[in-house]
Amino acid sequence: MLHIPNVQIDGIVGTGLFERFLATLDYPKTRLILRPRSAAISAQFETSAVAAGAAIVPCWLAGITLPGLFFFDSGLAGGGLLPSPQLVDSAHLDIDREKATTGTGGGGAVVAIRFVARTIAVGDAVQHCQR
Q: Of 35, 36, 39, 127, which is the most exposed, with the fewest CB atoms less than 10 Å away?
């Protein structure tokens, strides 16, 4: 069971629910927005998001990790990207495997290695590290 000091967790909502909606995490306002999933609503959302300066990044909702793909987990405390080994190699990421930690995720045991990339780009969204 997940334990976070001073936080009560009453339940966990997973991709089985989210795949039925157009789900948006609004971090500044700390809310989850669920809209009906349809082509018209998705197009309307994308148009307003681009007008507001958001980057639209197409992605798949998948239960497997394929070579070259990566996994974003908005609930990954202290982390944000799980690249495949092939992506780590092809991007020449300098990862110190001696600093690996282990834990339990929703799918079982996980190994995490913290690293900082100088630049990350997903679609048109680009973020540079401020060291």
A: 39
pTM beyond 0.85, yes or no: no
Task: Provide the pLDDT confidence category of residue 76 given band limits of 50, 70 and 90.
Answer: low
Express each pLDDT in 14-24 by its tens digit: 777 777 888 88
Q: Which of 64, 46, 43, 37 is nearest to 124 (CA)?
A: 46
Domain housing 16: 1-54
Same domain for 83 and 50: no
